[in-house]
């Protein structure tokens, strides 16, 4: 964005009177902590109160990032679903606007469910979303901004042609939803995918349209699977290449489907002339699928950021406490820190990294450690940072690999393996990593760690995020999430980054090749009582080449109010 655009935006914001909250003043967290809200986050996106699930229709439009989300305005549990709406200039600081889509018409009276935004060639944004109609059928609808000169696109009108896509005889009206962002083929015809289940098979049905209003279903779905049930929130996009039509089809395409509470993806080549998708691997749903995140992360959606030429991924991070807990808290659900997503060097799988903008929240004080040997069975504290609100990056150098334990080829599912070999199970090379949201005496701790095994032809790196000792509170799940990391420890160092924010820990292993997000609800390790440690419970020492930890400032995630103070994301 040019300087002139920034100045114009600042002017627009001041004239619209958006209330910001200076650091140290009101933030989404400080609004709540006085009311005993240890789990409210400080820099992850959440609405002021009530229920939130899927990210919807994220887009960058004329200098502003928009995030819509599935939102229940009345309660902290799922229901009465509308589209909440917030805007940002930097993907980190947000202003909450009024609800963008409410269930008002026969074609969505029972809920405005998930969908996506498409920027049409004449620079007009359009939203395709699922409505539940008067008969509770799932149908696909179109909404467009009422006033294109409003920079925040606050009001949306639903076209009188709705519904544009309705379930036909073979489509179960309960399994037909969540349209993707549409794309234009070389023939100038629009394509869009809708998630479905037909004859017990999960699939992405393909529709085509010349005018974005009249849509025809193609004979075959773009892809389907006998191994899965309903595909929710499909996503389909070129990776590596640009989204411009000229070279968009020369690159690989990712197809993501949400099922089984997890976001799975495959990579392949898309042929727009025939609308065929030639895949490199398929969904198997046996624990071996490629996944965006191996922890709590669902119904995600990407969008192309035309300003910074990057693809951004958002995912819904649900609570893992009880419904009664959510009602007590008065809220439920977070969004992940937006991640920039690229195809890794191997060309086989994706690599994700928190958007650079989040680093502006890092405070000046930093814990900086180099070349420290972490002896076998040892732990040390990382001091001087606010451990409940931190960003930690660490690089390990692991030698003596010939001592690694043997890998059993039947260990296909990394989560099962992390469950069996959680952080308290000592090993040879590993477990080593971080203990986050830990109490002083370590009675509470969330361990994020690695183990290295030797298989017949290579070393296997396992990454775990272990909640078995996360909280002294009863009734919480004690899952240990797991992922294999596609790296050769003989040739590469092992890196870990964790974003810690009161009740969420997002971890990125192997420079973002494997990601695990966890929800954590400590009883002792809250706010100033939280501590951060590095540990090695293996029988071989490991070396920390570099460890940096920063306290994180709170983001400004606040409702719009008529005040004079401006807010925008480039002020620091
Ligand atoms: N959430 C929406 C649906 C979608 C599901 C309803 C996925 O459209 O399939 O809130 O979490």
What is shown here, in short?
With 572 residues, the protein is mainly beta. The longest helix is centred in the N-terminal third of the chain and has 14 residues, at 3-16.
How would you describe this structure in keywords?
Jelly Rolls; 2 domains; 6-stranded mixed sheet; 39 strands; globular; disordered N terminus; binds 2,5-dideoxy-2,5-imino-D-mannitol
User: Helix count?
Assistant: 5
State mean pLDDT (0 to 100 scale). 92
Q: In angstroms, what is the radius of gyration?
A: 23 Å
Overall tally of domains: 2
Q: Provide the low-confidence segments as ranges.
A: 1-25, 568-572
List each distinct ligand once: 2,5-dideoxy-2,5-imino-D-mannitol
The percent range for helix content is under 10%
- Please identify which CATH superfamily of the largest domain we are dealing with: Glycosyl hydrolase domain, family 43
**Shape field:** globular
The number of strands is 39
Strand % is 35-45%
């Amino acid at each position: 964005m040019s300087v002139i655009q920034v100045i114009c935006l600042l002017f627009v914001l001041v004239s619209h009177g958006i209330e910001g909250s200076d650091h140290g003043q009101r933030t989404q967290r400080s609004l709540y902590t006085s009311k005993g809200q240890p789990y409210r986050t400080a820099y992850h996106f959440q609405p002021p109160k009530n229920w939130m699930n899927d990210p919807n229709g994220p887009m960058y439009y004329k200098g502003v990032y928009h995030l819509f989300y599935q939102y229940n305005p009345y309660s902290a549990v799922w229901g009465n679903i509308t589209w909440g709406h917030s805007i940002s200039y930097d993907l980190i600081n947000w202003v909450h606007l009024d609800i963008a889509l409410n269930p008002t018409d026969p074609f969505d009276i029972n809920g405005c469910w998930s969908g996506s935004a498409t920027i049409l060639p004449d620079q007009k944004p359009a939203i395709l979303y699922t409505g539940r109609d008067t008969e509770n059928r799932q149908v696909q609808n179109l909404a467009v901004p009422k006033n294109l000169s409003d920079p925040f696109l606050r009001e949306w009108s639903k076209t009188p042609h709705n519904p544009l896509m309705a379930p036909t005889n073979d489509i179960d009206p309960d399994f037909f939803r969540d349209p993707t962002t549409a794309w234009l083929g070389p023939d100038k015809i629009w394509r869009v995918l809708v998630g479905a289940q037909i004859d017990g098979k999960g699939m992405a049905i393909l529709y085509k349209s010349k005018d974005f209003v009249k849509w025809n279903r193609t004979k075959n779905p773009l892809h389907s699977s006998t191994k899965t049930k309903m595909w929710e929130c499909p996503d389909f996009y070129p990776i590596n290449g640009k989204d411009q039509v000229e070279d968009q089809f020369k690159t690989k395409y990712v197809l993501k489907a949400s099922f089984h509470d997890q976001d799975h993806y495959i990579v392949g080549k898309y042929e727009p002339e025939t609308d065929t998708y030639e895949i490199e691997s398929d969904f198997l749903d046996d624990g071996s699928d490629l996944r965006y995140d191996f922890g709590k992360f669902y119904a995600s959606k990407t969008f192309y950021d035309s300003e910074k030429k990057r693809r951004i991924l958002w995912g819904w991070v649900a609570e893992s406490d009880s419904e009664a807990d959510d009602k007590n808290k008065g809220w439920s659900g977070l969004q992940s820190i937006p991640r920039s997503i690229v195809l890794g060097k191997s060309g086989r799988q994706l690599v994700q990294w928190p958007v650079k903008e989040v680093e502006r929240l890092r405070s000046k004080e930093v814990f900086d450690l180099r070349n420290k040997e972490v002896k076998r069975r040892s732990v040390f504290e990382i001091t001087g940072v606010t451990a409940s609100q931190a960003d930690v990056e660490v690089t390990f150098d692991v030698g003596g690999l010939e001592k690694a334990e043997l890998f059993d080829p039947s260990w296909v599912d990394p989560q099962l393996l992390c469950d069996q070999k959680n952080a308290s199970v000592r090993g040879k090379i590993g477990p080593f990593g971080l203990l986050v949201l830990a109490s002083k005496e370590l009675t509470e701790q969330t361990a994020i760690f690695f183990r290295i095994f030797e298989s017949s032809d290579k070393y296997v790196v396992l990454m775990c995020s272990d909640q078995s000792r996360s909280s002294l509170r009863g009734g919480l799940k004690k899952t240990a999430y797991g992922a294999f990391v596609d790296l050769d420890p003989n040739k590469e160092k092992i890196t870990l980054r964790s974003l810690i924010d009161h009740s969420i820990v997002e971890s990125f292993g192997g420079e973002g090749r494997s990601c695990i997000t966890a929800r954590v609800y400590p009883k002792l390790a809250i706010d100033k009582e939280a501590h951060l440690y590095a540990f090695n419970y293996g029988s071989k020492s490991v070396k920390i080449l570099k460890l940096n930890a920063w306290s994180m400032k709170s983001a400004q995630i606040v409702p719009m109010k008529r005040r004079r103070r401006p807010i925008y994301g480039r002020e620091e």
